[in-house]
Design brief:
The structure is a homodimer of 203-residue chains. Chain A is mostly helical. Helix content of chain A is 74%, strand content 0%. Chain A is built from 9 helices and no strands. The first copy, chain A, is elongated. The N and C termini of chain A lie far apart (59 Å). The interface between A and B is large, with 49 and 49 residues.
Chain lengths: 203, 203
């Protein structure tokens, strides 16, 4: 393939994923049709099927690439800026959850939504979602380990258990928010998490 | 209505709710048809429609009565047996989450599932689910208040924030379990919650 052709093809694929993400995030995976997604893109149905032969292929790619990158960008990469990873986790919790835009308060976390919707329905979907969730936990752990080595966390801290606890709390907060839509509750969860971290920190 | 007739009618209604609960819990609300539920009961379609004119009526009643009672039975009533409510919360977390039967490990919490599935789809459903979730938080708070008065919790404890944190953690654990299906993770969350409670307790 020519270089330009290849670049255009990659652009089309990325454009489809952008559109599909927002449609699925706001309407759920099962409720959204390929026709609906195609109608919101600038591409033909033929081009769509060239990239994603089935709706499931689209869903798998969305989870495996798009959501994996999003979790990295929103929850992992910002931790690099913090010498103390617990400060970094609190920063991410505030930015991504407590301060989320009003219009998304009832929509929850796109990864958690797909997990809740598809994990029991489709084993392949579940495997991909589990691998993204595991990556999120492992990468959080890696930063906690770095913090432990640098003396910010108590030496006896079980960083894997702590990373699992943090990710569970984050996904739980998104889940509760979908139903209660109450920012005060999210602020309270943030304060409680802060109290918890005080316990783990080396004074 | 005759007494016996009334009793039979109540029995039929309860039987339909029992069957509907299990079908919806294992297949989601939107995926289950009325025909499917009726075929698994001992009742006629006419009797079904007498009690629940629409599928939404069934869903609302399931959340408002059946799940409300279930949350009371599983998460609130057991707390009465514990002078220290934090011990009670840990007991419930262990019984209802860490030790849940293998076959349900991937199914999550029935209330959380309905919240995740229906809160963005149907405002009336959301209102009912929010009221059940709020009841769960308020009742947990009531037991924490009792424990605080009895001197088990530090006097400065914000019991509402703590109740919200506990319920979020429980729902988060169910959510994570649906995708990871790993009892070790649940055991780790239990240990982390225990560590947290050590901080709040009066020594």
């Amino acid at each position: 393939m020519e270089k330009k052709q290849k670049r255009d093809s990659e652009k089309t694929r990325a454009h489809i994923l952008d559109v599909a993400f927002l449609e699925i995030y706001t309407h759920s995976f099962q409720a959204v049709s390929i026709d609906r997604i195609v109608s919101k893109t600038q591409v033909t149905k033929g081009a769509f099927f060239h990239h994603f032969p089935t709706k499931n292929d689209l869903g798998y790619t969305l989870a495996d690439e798009y959501l994996r990158d999003m979790m990295q960008d929103r929850w992992i990469k910002p931790l690099r800026r913090f010498k103390d990873p617990l400060q970094g986790v609190l920063h991410c919790f505030k930015t991504n959850i407590v301060d989320m835009p009003d219009e998304f308060l009832g929509f929850g976390c796109p990864l958690n939504n797909l997990c809740q919707e598809m994990a029991t329905v489709d084993p392949k979907f579940r495997d991909i979602l589990a691998s993204v969730l595991t990556m999120w936990i492992e990468e959080t752990k890696r930063h906690l380990d770095r913090g432990k080595e640098a003396g910010y966390l108590k030496p006896e801290t079980d960083t894997l258990a702590l990373a699992e606890y943090i990710v569970t709390m984050q996904e739980g907060a998104f889940g509760i928010s979908k139903t209660l839509r109450d920012r005060k509750v999210l602020q309270g969860l943030y304060e409680s998490l802060k109290v918890y971290f005080e316990l783990i920190k080396v004074k």
